[in-house]
Design brief:
The protein is α/β, with parallel strands linked by helices. The chain has 13 helices and 8 strands. Mean pLDDT is about 85; it is low at about 1-5.
């Protein structure tokens, strides 16, 4: 754990604190009102806490879990003072978030036996999917990796152009075909090109708007299957990008994509412009899928690997 602590730099901590400012301010003001005039955690405080978390977009089911855990802690440890509430909430919420903090010791590294490391990115249009891909490419390259991008969103005219702009900005190659081409063929060529070049990482963009879930499932399944013909471990990540500022709408998007494909990682964007950052807690808990990246601003470096302990500490001003 000491090594992890050292790697989470002061600069990253400042970016995280700044990015969560709106959520933190909103939540803190509500928490202060929840305990005003109270010296111990009683039923009134718990009722007030329920309102705090539901209105902070944590979600009803996750809120009830948090309250159950707080009640159990109060009963077990006899921590009844409201001055202990923030510490209790930090501990319990950190434990609820999916992921093993001890594994999060290095950012943007690639397992030596999984090259090229294949990331298939899914999500609806407008959530910051292409921007997230560009920032991922930058961060992986900065970490010393050779990166290739694949423009498999062949339905939207501007999609490959946007990805190509990011490729030029980051100085990484973009594999693309003509508009309307079978997306699976683009994904195949991108992974094959990455393998031929000895690349470390290949990131595949996919269509963000499809007619129905059956179409979505069929297309994503086909893309996965053709990539496995090139490297049998592909895709290593199916990364769902969600817009944190949409609050409960992000839950609905997550539900649809999790049903359509085997999502195993989440990126939650635009947290710097919203007071709805509590959605990170709810989505991680409800879908039991680790949040791997969070977007905290416009700069290339403002996409961070998610560290649950640091996130919760920042949320509660620690």
């Amino acid at each position: 754990m000491g090594f992890f602590k050292k790697l989470f730099s002061r600069e990253k901590k400042e970016t995280l604190d700044k990015g969560l400012e709106k959520t933190k301010e909103g939540m803190f003001s509500k928490l202060a009102r929840a305990v005003v005039g109270k010296s111990k955690i009683d039923d009134d405080v718990l009722d007030n806490l329920e309102e705090v978390f539901v209105t902070s977009d944590v979600g009803v089911n996750t809120t009830l879990k948090i309250l159950d855990r707080i009640q159990a802690r109060v009963a077990r440890d006899k921590y009844v003072g409201t001055d202990e509430l923030n510490n209790l909430l930090c501990d319990e919420i950190t434990q609820m978030l999916v992921g093993d903090e001890s594994d999060e010791t290095e950012d943007f590294t690639v397992p030596a036996d999984k090259k090229p490391y294949v990331i298939m990115v899914v999500g609806v249009n407008g959530v910051g999917k292409t921007t997230t891909i560009g920032k991922l490419a930058y961060q992986y390259k900065q970490a010393g990796n050779k990166v290739v991008l694949g423009a498999a969103d062949t339905y939207r005219a501007a999609a490959d152009e946007q990805l190509e702009i990011w490729g030029q900005r980051v100085d990484v190659p973009v594999i693309k075909h003509n508009m309307g081409t079978d997306p699976a063929s683009v994904a195949y060529d991108a992974v094959a090109s990455a393998k031929a070049q000895g690349a470390d990482v290949v990131i595949i963009d996919t269509a963000g708007r499809l007619h129905n879930n059956v179409s979505l499932m069929n297309q994503l399944t086909k893309i996965k299957n053709v990539m496995k013909k090139v490297v049998d471990h592909a895709p290593n990540e199916i990364l769902l990008v969600l817009d944190g500022s949409t609050g409960q709408n992000a839950f609905e998007q997550a539900k649809q994509f999790v049903a359509a494909t085997e999502v195993n990682a989440l990126a939650i964007t635009k947290l710097d412009g919203t007071a709805k950052g509590g959605v990170v807690i709810g989505i991680s808990d409800q879908f039991q899928i680790p949040v791997k990246y969070i977007g905290l601003g416009e700069q290339m470096t403002d996409l961070q690997v998610f560290h649950k302990e640091e996130f919760v500490k920042s949320l509660f001003g620690k």
